[in-house]
Design goal:
The protein has twelve helices and 50 strands. The protein is α+β, with helices and mostly antiparallel strands and 790 residues long. Helix 7 runs antiparallel to helix 11. The protein is globular. The protein has six domains: 34 residues; 106 residues, Immunoglobulin-like, CATH 2.60.40; 191 residues, Rossmann fold, CATH 3.40.50; 257 residues, no CATH class; 51 residues; 127 residues, Jelly Rolls, CATH 2.60.120. The chain is 18% helix and 39% strand. Keywords: Membrane, Transmembrane, Transmembrane helix. InterPro entries: Class_I_gatase-like, DUF7408.
Length: 790
Amino acid sequence: MQSFRRYIRRIVLPVLLTIWVLLLLPGWGGTAHAEDAPSISLKTEIGYNGKMKMGSWNPVKFTLTSSQDISGDLVIQIDTGLAPATYVQHVELPKDTAKVVIMGVPGDNFTKDTNEIRFYKNSFQKGKRVSFSSGTPYLKGMPVTASNVAVLSEDPDTMNFLNVLRSSGYDLNVLPLKGTDLPEDPMLLDSLDVIVLNRFASDTLSKGQAAAVEQWVRSGGELVLAGGAAYPKSAAAFEQIAPVQYTGTYTASSLPELAKLGGKPLELGGELTLSDASPVEGGEVMYQVGGKPLIASRQVEQGTVLYAAYDLSMEPLASWSGHPSVWSYLLRDHLALSNQPNNKFNMMQNQMYNLINVLDYFPSLKMPSFPVMAWLLIIYAVIVAPVLYWILKKADKREWAWWIIPLIAVIASGTVYMIGAADKTKQLAHTINMLELDGKGNASEVSASAFFTPRSGEFTIDFPAHTYLTVDRTNGAFSSSNRSNSFVEVGDQSTRLTLSDMPQWSLAKVWSNRRENRKVGQFDVKIQLDAKGNIGGQVTNNTSYNLNHAVLALGGSLFELGDFGKGETKPLSAASKPTAVNPYNMANQIFGNLTGGQADEFTREREILMTTVPNTAWYQSGSYVMAWSKDPLVSYTMEGKKLEGNQLNLWAQPVSINWAQNGNLNIPFGFIQPKVTQISSPGWYEDPSGTTEMDQGSITFEYTVPALKQGASAVLTLRANNPGKKTQYQIFNNDKQTWDPVTWDATKQWKAEKNVQQYLAGGRIRLMLTAQEHVQLKLPEISLKGAEKP
């Protein structure tokens, strides 16, 4: 015992003391290990000026500073919307250097409970999670549905006059930005509706930023280039898409066309310096001063570039009371009304959820035949009961039933399983594409896909570069949860979706967004209207595909064109007799009525026409060509292999009609759709059929028509089939700057045959409707006849 104690004192205690001392030294033990671990601070900024838009993709700026050189994945896990998803970006963090990382997130309500920001050393799949030493590891923000007008200018107050429009029912934000705020990915501009450059040196933008803005325009954005004498520096980076070519400057002491457009007197109090320019090919001069372009526009694929010859921040124009009205009209397609049911957000959300639901009709996956399953059940019941009993009784082996019946049950179950799984043995895809053609060879595209996995496990799917994904997961055959992990990595080469923990026989649905147009060709539409408004003409399929079930909607009439081969021309005289468009039942007009018990091969088309098409701008325009095809327009790879599947494509192109007939304009009723621009009625609503519902109050609406030849005779007619009870209509007189009463005659028409120009300001006809009580009605139709402006 004593020898043992001496051993402890002489050997063990010195060793333990030495270890304890070493643990206290730098580089040893727990304290040193903590110092070896990287320390990462985090700062976040969401949207533009803190404004995040619902239904759009928004940039998030992460500022990361690490105490060590470290490589890893920055991830943000979001648990809102359709299903949880994690967005991933790989980053390299140099020691003690702030690194800015920009990622895109869908606009939603972000709180501590709906998202989390993480960092994984090396990779999110196998790396160790590194906690943040400072900063809030989640996003905070409430989304808006307002229109966002971004302004880059030397004067940050430029375009603040638009805020006045809020009192007229507009829902908008004016966002002064710096050049460094613009990303190099066009999808991260998705939450902006308008970008204004006024006295801003656009050539200070990087090539990537300028390219992103241009692509944003091509896919539907609106860019305004202005600045007066400073216009050249505003347009420097965008000369290829500008409506005009700059030639110098000039001065003007009055702007009469602008005054008419604004509906208010305009006194400049001196001379104003403007930029002088000439229109380029594709540019259209909308308003002039002294024969020179004052406002010009140019359609660039799906988007628009506007030119203003003056400095938008210069007085007295900046504070002129008519200025908000001018720009509410010029930007009318991109400014949302606060209680407008068909705003961009509602339309996109409805499209997404409706297409996601249509994906449930997976053509490659079929339910087992009911008659086959019924016969299997009958055969099983007959064999197990009377037949087996008779055989065993005959052989005097009834005790064998204890093992024969279970064996037959196993065989029957296996047979049922094999029948049910016959078409569920490989990965499949089901995609719906909606293409809107611009009539010049390009098309914007909305896609939704469903991916079927026959086995459980992890799957990777590769999409084109800069594709942004919203993911929905459904239960598998042997799963009780849809909260599986979905990881999205957006990259310059491709976008990768990793689906982990996928149950057997399960679906992952994906809504994909890209701000890049597709080259597909166009429909060439030539329409003639005679003096009585009868429609003639032809439609040519100059797309790259053979189409079917094609129709032409025009002025409330539907012409069925049927199968429409590539390069084929169809005269309207050969089309079926036109019928009135039924906004609630167009599917039956095109695909026929269903009878009881009849199998429907057009289930998907009917669902899309009923739920998704009414939420498109081209449908609401009232005049368009629409057709279908099943060609494989998009391709995906899963686990490195091309994915087989079905695709259904909807083709649509708005139709613009040349109203000039031998130098005269002849616009019949029903072809020009009114656009509501101001609302002072809390209960205003307009459904797809055109029926307006409103409470006590007023609305202002406009018709856009071609300009008439000055001094030529013309006739303007309004027709109100259902003007509503206890309502009053007025039309704006641009010469008097007053509202003239509109009184309906016995046929519910109102006509102006003298001095029609007083009601037109650059093709803008404005009316006001006032209701004394809740009412349902239809806004008037317009007819215009006269000589075309040369």
